[in-house]
Each structure stands twice: as structure tokens, then as C-alpha cells.
Amino acid sequence: METARRYRDFQAADCRGGVRDFYALNHARQTFAFVEAKRREYLPLRKRRMGVWEAVEALAGIVDDSDPDLSLPQIDHALQTAEALRADGRPRWLVLTGFVHDLGKVLCLFGEPQWAVVGDTFPVGCAFSDRIVHSELFAANPDRAVAEYASETGIYERGCGLGKVRMSWGHDEYLYHVLREHLRDEALAIVRYHSFYAAHREGAYGFLMNADDRRLFEHVRDFNRYDLYSKQPERPDLPGLRSYYEDLVAEFLPDTLAW
Fold first, then answer.
1. How much is the pTM?
2. Residues 115-158 pLDDT 10s
């Protein structure tokens, strides 16, 4: 549980302001250059090797600053989401996706502030949509002054597909790369885009999508109701559930992953 203790130390040191304060930092600092720098730093996946359970236990020490609906640690959110899927008899691959979908928040373990880890995600390199939560706060983002990024499509071509689009840096994009060799496309789309609310809930950025994105976003939208509406104040029984989830993880994922 050393990892979890390090998370608790981080959380104690990380000043928890309001959600708007969180997004003021996120929207001002998530620039195209920042995203490129983080991709160069993290996407070689050389920070460490660890199994899913070490990452899960790390979530015992982090509460998401961007989430006004849940004050429990993320380990509880992971179990609540997965258990809601299991109760509805959903496929095992989808229950697993619910269990692991937020594991990218281990970025905090590597010293990243929460504004660079959690919260709604959005494309960079093109105009910021007014359908993004607290979109007015992008006024402080330096990319607003970059002519190349000012148009609706920016540096992208219409219909290019989201795989060619740079998303704001955070746990979604990071975990997608950690798991991309191991899970099916539907699960990977959920992992990568479950925080892209401007698209899957508000209908923005459809001009960047291709037919495959539109197909996969049906799965993202289906998952979203479990992600959002499974949140409860009561903590799940981790010891009682652990055996089931150990078997589930072993069915789909290797013993260790590159992070």
C-alpha cells in the first residue's frame, strides 16, 4: 500500500479549490505545446512497470477535484461503475472497462497536478467549442492568439477521424496508450473518450469524426450513464469483491503493464 500512501500525501498537498478554480487552471494551461510535451514525456511508457492492482490501490488516495458529485476516492468510483455494469448483466469486457477506465489517474503518482490529469477533455490545435464546460475560461489560453488554431478545424481536416486529433492531456489519453495493445476497440474508445463530454453529450466536434468514430461513440455514450449515475456515498466492499475482479483482470490483461 506504499503507492496509496504516496497518493494520500499528494492529495493533502494539492489544494482543493472549487470546480471552477480547477477549470481555470485546466483551460488556461492545456495548450497544443503542453500536450506535445506531455506526449513526449509519457508515451514512451517508460515511467515504470506495474500491475493493475498496484494502480487500483493507488486510486485509494485520490479524490477527483473536477467531480462535484463524488467525494469518495477513485477506487470506490471504479468499483461502483463496474458493479453497476455487472448488475445489468453487461459483457465481461465492459465490466472490466468500467473497473479500469480511470486508472490513468496514476499520473498523479508521477507528480502531475490534477488540472493535467482529470476533468473534461477537448481537442487542441483548433478553436475551443463553447460546448466545453466553463468554455469562457479559455480566454486565458495562449492558443487563442495562434492564428493556425483559430478556425473551427484548425490544423485538422474535416472528417479526419479523432485518432488524428490531439486531445488535451490527461488520464484518458494516457491510459489509452497503456492499454491499446490489450483491449478491444470499443473498450479503448471508452477509455480514451469517456471524459470528452463536449462530443458525446453535447454533440460538438462531429466535423472531426469519421464513420468509425461515430460507431464507437455509441459505446462511449452507453458507458457514460454507468460512469455518471453509479456514484453513491456508500463505499463498495473491496475485500469481498476483490476475487471477482482479480479473475476479471487476469482474463483480459497481463500481469504487468508499461506505464
1. 0.89
2. 999 999 999 999 999 999 999 999 999 999 999 999 999 999 99
- Tell me what the mean pLDDT of segment 98-105 comes to: 95
Angstrom distance (rounded) from CA 113 to CA 223: 27
- Whether the Cβ atoms of residue 9 and residue 1 lie closer than 8 Å to each other: no
Q: Is 16 helix (H, G, I), strand (E, B) or coil?
A: coil
Amino acid at the residue 139: A
Give the DSSP H/E element, type plus range, for residue 258. strand 257-258
Q: How far apart are CA 171 and CA 26, in angstroms?
A: 13
Would you list the DSSP string of 81-145? Answer: HHHHHHHTT--HHHHHHHHHTTGGGGGGGGT--GGGTSS---BSSSPPPTTSTTGGGGGG-GGGG
Half-sphere exposure of 131 (CA within 13 A, CB side): 14
Write down the mean pLDDT value for the chain: 89
For the segment 5-42, what is each residue's pLDDT rounded down to a tens digit?
A: 333 333 333 334 488 999 999 999 999 999 999 999 99
Residues in the chain: 259
52-92 pLDDT tens trace: 999 988 877 766 555 555 556 778 888 999 999 999 999 99
Which among 6, 11, 195, 22 is positioned nearest to 101, based on CA atoms?
195
CA distance 225 to 195: 12
Helix (H) or strand (E) holding 67: none
CA separation (Å) from 73 to 8, 55, 149, 231, 246? 10, 13, 37, 11, 20
CB under 8 Å to 219, separation ≥6 — which residues?
186, 189, 190
The answer to whether the CB of 137 falls within 8 A of the CB of 28 is yes
